[in-house]
Design a protein that fits this description.
The complex is a heterodimer of chains A (about 110) and B (about 110). Chain A has strands at about 5, 10-15, 20-25, 30-35, 45-50, 55, 65-70, 75-80, 85-95, 105, 110-114. Chain A is built from no helices and eleven strands. In chain A, a hairpin with a 5-residue loop joins strand 7 (about 65-70) and strand 8. Chain A has about 110 residues and is an all-beta fold. In chain A, strands 2, 4, 5, 6, 9, 10 and 11 form a seven-stranded mixed sheet that branches. In chain A, strands 1-3-8-7 form a four-stranded antiparallel sheet, with no helix packed on it. By secondary structure, chain B is mainly β. Chain B is built from no helices and eleven strands. In chain B, the strands form two sheets. In chain B, strands 2, 4, 5, 9, 10 and 11 form a six-stranded mixed sheet that branches. In chain B, strand 4 and strand 5 form a beta hairpin. The chains are: A mainly beta (about 110), B mainly beta (about 110). The interface between A and B is medium-sized, with 25 and 24 residues.
């Protein structure tokens, strides 16, 4: 039982390049999330997926797209990376539909955009 | 815009000290409060989820209380150990919609 996994762990991009961050969970969770974490700022929600087949914008969605490929997988795509997207990205998942459900986090992807 | 505030921002204590931190949130917007522990170079790990006014939760030497009427939660660590060194985050869910509003955390350093 691996929990939430993310790939890659580290990535360096040049401005304008694109890439997809992958996330998978093996806990049979319905909901999945993408966050970014920047120094001096709290975790900020980029996009989330309440259930398979649905996605919704979070607090900072501009410059990102997501795909909920199936119940297990939720990917985050940067179409044209910008230096402002340099950050640590965390994927998380939660089981049920209630707001008191615990979120379980992946190990993070450290992205640098030059 | 809902805001979750945590204090202090950082804390240095000696091994064996007991300590506590505060998470403040708007009392008029409450569904659940989450506490997480985040060690450097790792990912946030859930400690507690609290939903009822007066809730008290405990896990080993760590405990938390909740006051939804006045909008705060306390996290207590009894007899701090170096392995307790981490950032402690709280997050508010203001409605049953699964979007958490995160505080900036309290960074705890426990000196041996």
């Amino acid at each position: 039982n691996a929990g939430v996994t993310q790939t890659p762990k580290f990535q360096v991009l040049k401005t304008g390049q694109s890439m997809t961050l992958q996330c998978a969970q093996d806990m049979n969770h319905n909901s999945m999330y993408w966050y970014r974490q920047d120094p001096g700022m709290g975790l900020r929600l980029i996009y989330y997926s309440a259930s398979e087949g649905t996605t919704d914008k979070g607090e900072v969605p501009n410059g990102y797209n997501v795909s909920r490929l199936n119940k297990r997988e939720f990917s985050l795509r940067l179409e044209s990376a910008a230096p402002s997207q340099t950050s640590v990205y965390f994927c998380a998942s939660s089981g049920g539909l209630a707001g008191d459900d615990t979120q379980y986090f992946g190990p993070g992807t450290r992205l640098t955009v030059l | 815009i809902l805001n979750v505030e945590q204090s202090p921002q950082s804390l240095h204590v000696q091994e064996g000290d007991s300590t506590n931190f505060t998470c403040s949130f708007p009392s008029s917007n409450f569904y659940a409060l989450h506490w997480y522990r985040w060690e450097t170079a790792k990912s946030p790990e859930a400690l507690f989820v609290m939903t009822l006014n007066g809730d008290e939760k405990k896990k080993g030497r760590i405990s938390a209380t909740l006051n939804t009427k006045e909008g705060y939660s306390y996290l207590y660590i009894k007899g701090s150990q170096p392995e307790d060194s981490a950032t402690y985050l709280c997050a508010l869910n203001a409605g049953n919609n699964r979007k958490l509003i995160w505080g900036l955390g309290t960074s705890l350093a426990v000196n041996p």
